Structures are given as C-alpha cells and as structure tokens.
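PROTEIN–LIGAND DATA SHEET

This sheet pairs a single protein chain with one bound small molecule, zinc ion, given as SMILES. Inputs appear in the order they were entered. The predicted three-dimensional arrangement of chain and ligand is reported afterwards as a token string under its own label.
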Amino acid sequence: MAKLGSPGRAIYDLIKLAPRNDLCPLCGVRKVGTLDHYLPRASYSALSVTPLNLIPACSECNRFKHDKRPTREEDQTFNPYVDDVTKSRWLVAVTEEGAPATVRFSVGKPTGWPNSLVARARYHFEVYKLGELYSHHATSEMSGIRRLLRQMHSLQGKIGVQTHLKDCEDSAREHDVNSWKAAMFAALADNEWYCDGGFDVLAF
Ligand SMILES: [Zn+2]
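PREDICTION REPORTED AS:
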C-alpha cells in the first residue's frame, strides 16, 4: 500500500502528516516518519488499510513494536486514536542521587485507573523503551540547566531552585501532562539534595 505510486500512497501520506506537532504520538519525542500498523499486517491483513489501524509513528517506535500481536488486554500498547490517556498523569520519575544525578522514569498508577489500564501503560512504556529514551534526554537537559541552577542557588538558595523547577514542570505539564520534561522537573524539584547543590555534583 505504501509503495510510491501505489493507489493507497496518498492516504498513507495524509495520515502520516496528520499529527499537529509532527511528533510521534507513541514516544512523544521523535519525528513522525512512518505509519505503524497497530494490529500487525502479518496477522491482520484485512486491517492494513483501515485508518484507525494506521498510527503515525517514528521509525524507531515502529521497529520496536514490529509485528507484536496482543493476546491479552494488558499486552496492548496505547492507540492514540482511541485511548485518551492524556488527562491522567501516568508517567512518573524519581531523582537518583549520584555524580552526576540522574532521573529514572516509570509508570505510576493514576487515581481511578483500573489495573488493566496501568498494565497497558507499563507495556507501552516497555515496548517503546521509553525509560531509556527519556533518561537519555533528561541527562542532556540536566547538563544544560546546571549553570542556571548554580546562579539561582547562589542568589536564592534551595528554595529558589525548587521554585524554578516547579515552574518548569507546570509549563511542561500544561503542554503535555505526560511529557518526560514534566516528569523530570517534578522529580528534580522533589529532591532536596538535588535542589540544594546536588545538581552541581560531578565525578572527577
Ligand atoms: Zn516514537
């Protein structure tokens, strides 16, 4: 269907262009570059041209999922067309003290969510290797804000750093409740050691 010049190519290209911000809805980080068959073509060939089964995705997410086929309710990744999980905060993180500090991401349990939905969030998180991806981005972001935090700490101490990180969290959260940035800033603001100079501890 997706071959250049084939009859379905125009539909394929239209769906691929649909996301407003051009970011992959499965990881929220990388650029859309392909269409993922939510139910794999290998097992569900009749659905291979059904729009609800075609998810704009980055090529890495597409590759990670490959032809995984759900056999239980819990083994279903989120389908952004039908699963609205954008209102509840399911992505959480904790700061790990060290030289340098790092942030570890995981799946929390939003109030009111049934266990099956939490299990699906975990499955989504694992299939798309989001922990690894978000930690990688967080490490880079934390290096980038070190100088600013140092200045804030020298002027306003731990409370100044905490207030700034909370503001960053609120801003990221307004844009996307489950963005890795919102989870990261929340984790950093919650950690007293980090806010009181831990951000500047590096291995020599
Ligand atoms: Zn992706």
